[in-house]
Amino acid sequence: MNKSDKSFKYVFSETSIESFKKKPEDNLTFSALVNLVQTVNYQIKYLNNESVVISKYTKDGKLIHTEKIELPVSEHTDFEALLVKFEQTKPPKPT
């Protein structure tokens, strides 16, 4: 199994984007996350700027990565590059 094919818990917060408010948590693969953000971006491209904070967790609740994403972005955006940090599969090591 490719690491991108493994599902992780994602939490969507600090947003007024309706689709993220309706389902603030979801178990997704990285590819599904990219597709979701692309779809939401397309749906809101004619609205004012919006944002969402996306947080990725391990199955035992450890935070792997969190980031605020401003939407909409250009339809030509490389969404995989925009969301690449969410491909991490382990929490950062303490410094």
Mean residue pLDDT: 86
Strand order of the largest sheet: 2-1-3-4
Number of helices: 3
- Report the major sheet: 4 strands, antiparallel
Give helix and strand order, one letter per element, not per position.
EHEHEEH
Number of domains: 1
The tally of strands reads 4
Uncertain stretches of 5 or more adjacent residues: none
> What is the percent of helical residues?
25-40%
Radius of gyration: 13 Å
List descriptors.
single chain; 95 residues; alpha+beta; 4-stranded antiparallel sheet; 3 helices; 25% helix; 28% strand; globular
Q: What is the topology?
A:
Blueprint: E1 8-13, H1 18-22, E2 25-28, H2 30-44, E3 50-57, E4 63-71, H3 79-82
Antiparallel strand pairs: 1-2, 1-3, 3-4
Molecular structure report:
By secondary structure, the chain is of the alpha+beta class. The chain has one domain (3-83). It has three helices and four strands; from the N terminus they run βαβαββα. It has helices at residues 18-22, 30-44, 79-82, and strands at residues 8-13, 25-28, 50-57, 63-71.
Explain briefly what this protein structure is:
The chain has three helices and four strands, in the order βαβαββα.
